[in-house]
UniProtKB/TrEMBL annotation:
Keyword tags: Metal-binding, Zinc, Zinc-finger
Presence of keyword Zinc-finger: yes
GO biological process, one term: chromatin remodeling
Region (Disordered): 1-20
Top-level taxon of origin: Eukaryota
Gene expressing this chain: gb16634
Annotated GO MF terms: zinc ion binding
Native source organism of the sequence: Eleusine coracana subsp. coracana
Family matches, as InterPro entries: Vps71/ZNHIT1
Record's protein name: Uncharacterized protein
Amino acid sequence: MDGEEENVGPFRRTSARTRRMATQMASALASSDNRAQAALARLEALESDNAGVEVVDLNDDEYGSTDEEDLVLMQKKQSKNMKRKTRQGKAMEKRAARSFMDVLHDVSRILVVV
């Protein structure tokens, strides 16, 4: 707690390092309009870097796809992306959507063994 109080007011720490800036950049940022424009340009660049991430809701019934179609699409997507099975790939395969008949078949196979 005492360390936080020392950094307030006239006892605030300052850096001895000088901040270097290109002369053209310094002249460009002289006006507030140019600063705002530069800030927007940096924001757009940051957003364009993260544009590839998109959240998709798999339970959306808007398109009316069936479970079998989803399974086929998921298998096609996996076959393109994975040449060999990694631990993550195996885990994803276990968590893949299965139809009720597949689950019923697995349960009946387990009951026969026991």
